[in-house]
Design a protein that fits this description.
The protein is α/β, with parallel strands linked by helices. It has helices at about 5-15, 60-70, 85-95, 140-150, 170-185, 210-215, 230-245, 285-295, 300-315, 325-335; strands at about 20-25, 25-40, 45-60, 75-80, 100-105, 115-120, 125-130, 155-160, 185-190, 205, 250, 260, 270. It has a single domain, classed as 3-Layer(aba) Sandwich (UDP-N-acetylmuramoyl-L-alanine:D-glutamate ligase). A hairpin with a 6-residue loop joins β2 (about 25-40) and β3 (about 45-60). α4 (about 140-150) packs parallel to α5 (about 170-185), α6 crosses α7 (about 230-245) and α9 (about 300-315) packs across α10 (about 325-335). The radius of gyration is 20 Å and the shape is globular.
């Protein structure tokens, strides 16, 4: 990277530390059970995993907050957790890392979403999900809107991580869009394709390729290289920008990098920066976190996309729902 570009990206990354970010979305607890496999079960053709350790991390929207916390100490989160042991563990993890959980509602009628991954020899053997989807009640939606109104003036940006589990409803989405517009705040969204929510006028949306095709109502197609010759993908981008009226649309493409549609500029492609891929879980959370921070410090959409691309490229080189540090991000520009 040229010296002037390196100085520019270094300066942008240095500005992350004083940004104040609110994360809104579906909270989860990620549980990892680590083990070794030495034989196949005599009861069924499945491996026997001898457990060697367990780890717990904030997941879903909580993992977006965890990623943000690597770069700034001013992170708050809004969501729903149950009055259960998993909810206690999740909020304990968030609080211990310095994330503000005052806007997390605890519901006795809700089971905290937990995703358990059993990993052996650096390979995921199986994932077990414990969840019961339900939309917010009227009272919960009212409280979330009141909390948002009390917090919006004190943040620089809002990130919505919609995992389709029910916390983000259209009334809440509409209020998020209005509040961000009224207060001049950056609003970024990692949308879920099956919720069909409208996101009128948000700063940026970041679906992955499959999510983008589903949201656009088009059958998924095989990737085409070069990316800018992928007519189906470009049509998806056009449809989504028209539907959502988003200022910027960033479609993540896995090993093919990212496609950015920003303002009136022609579509642009950023190739992947991943060196090795061990685990893609959580890479999208890293991308939306760093994209938002980039926009919040005044990066152009293309610069913010490059920051997000590099950060997610580092994240997939780690096992588990991993985070990326400022030093790692800065080092990536020097390679």
């Amino acid at each position: 990277m040229h010296a002037e570009n390196l100085a520019r990206y270094d300066g942008l990354a240095a500005g992350f530390a004083d940004r104040r970010i609110l994360v809104v979305g579906d909270l989860m607890l990620d549980e990892f059970i680590w083990g070794k496999v030495s034989r196949i079960s005599p009861e069924a053709p499945v491996p026997i995993v001898n457990v060697t350790g367990e780890s717990h991390y904030p997941g879903g929207a909580a993992n977006v907050a965890r990623n943000l916390k690597e770069f700034t100490s001013h992170v708050a989160i809004m969501g729903l957790a149950g009055n259960d042991a998993a909810g206690d563990r999740l909020l304990g993890l968030l609080s211990a890392s310095g994330i503000d959980t005052a806007a997390v509602q605890r519901s006795p009628g809700f089971d905290t979403i937990t995703k358990t991954r059993i990993v052996a020899r650096n390979q995921q053997v199986v994932r077990v999900d414990r969840e019961r989807k339900r939309a917010l009640t009227g009272a919960e939606t009212t409280l979330a809107i009141e909390q948002l109104d009390a917090m919006v003036a004190g943040v620089d940006a809002i990130v919505v991580a919609d995992y389709g589990k029910g916390f983000v409803t259209q009334p809440l989405a509409d209020h998020l869009c209005r509040a961000a517009c009224q207060h001049g705040k950056i609003l970024t969204v990692d949308p879920h394709p099956h919720t069909s929510l409208n996101w009128a006028g948000v700063t940026a949306l970041k679906p992955n390729r499959l999510e983008a095709f589903i949201a656009a109502g088009m059958p998924p197609s095989e990737p085409v290289t070069p990316v800018l010759a992928d007519e189906a993908l470009l049509e998806v981008g056009r449809r989504l920008r028209q539907r959502w009226q988003a200022q910027n649309l960033l479609i993540t493409l896995g090993e093919h990098g990212m496609l950015l549609l920003a303002g009136d500029a022609p579509p642009s492609h950023t190739p992947t920066r991943a060196q090795e891929v061990f685990d893609v879980s959580g890479a999208g959370d890293t991308a939306i976190a760093v994209l938002t921070l980039g926009l919040a410090v005044g990066a152009t959409p293309a610069e913010a996309a490059e920051l997000a691309n590099r950060a997610s490229g580092i994240a997939v080189g780690k096992l588990g729902t991993a985070t990326v540090t400022l030093d790692e991000l800065r080092a990536s520009f020097r390679k």
